[in-house]
Amino acid sequence: METGALSGGGILDPEGAMDRMRAWKGRIDKLAADTRAMSERLDGLRVTVSDEHGLCEVTVDNTGALLDLTLGRGIQRVAPEVVARTIMDTIRLAKTQIADRSQEIIAETVGTDSAAARAIAERVDRRLRPEPDPDEWRPGSGYDGHGWRG
After folding, report:
1. Which of 31, 33, 102, 142 is the most buried (most CB within 10 A)?
2. Rounded CA gap, 148 and 150, in Å?
3. Domain range holding 70?
4. Is 6 domain-assigned?
């Protein structure tokens, strides 16, 4: 007469234990592969954005670092502070797009169910989407393509 602990997947069932270990290893291997895929896709991520008036074009990498800045001829017709604000706003927009794309990559590769995936997504969001300053200038509140509307 066999007891439940000796057969049928109990603690003393070596074959059942091996099956559980193989399943666990399979999940770990898949998570490692998914994490590598996520990392590779995030590492290669770049976004280029132009402002709506053609004053500048910026390229940022997956960390939000500015990689390239191109200024258009229109900057000669506007005040330097408008150019500076436009550049900063365009960088913020590029960072927002990088954050959005990063969230998509995280969801596509490691999913959103695990605590680790949620922690990665939150860290990316905090780094690329800082809390807005309510006193800071916002797009559309100044330069209209023809001049400064203070």
Report:
1. 102
2. 6
3. 44-128
4. no
In a domain, 139, yes or no: no
- Exposure letters 75-94 (e unless 16+ CB within 10 A, then b): beebeeebbebbbebbbbbb
DSSP 145: S
- pTM for the model stands at 0.71
Question: Element (H or E) spanning 108, and its range?
Answer: helix 80-109
Q: How many CB atoms lie within 10 A of CB 124?
A: 20
Q: Write out pLDDT tens, residues 96-124.
A: 999 999 999 999 998 888 888 889 889 98
In angstroms, rounded to a whole number, what is the distance separating the alpha carbons of residues 20 and 26?
10
**Angle CA(124)–CA(126)–CA(132) in degrees, nearest 5?**
135
Retrieve residue 22's tokens.
Answer: 């193989």
Domain-located, residue 97: yes
At 36-53, the pLDDT tens digits run 999 999 999 999 999 999
Structurally, the chain folds into a number of domains equal to 1
Provide the residue count of the chain. Answer: 150
With respect to residue 55, please indicate whether it lies within any of the assigned structural domains: yes
Q: Which of 20, 12, 98 has its CA nearest to residue 59?
A: 98
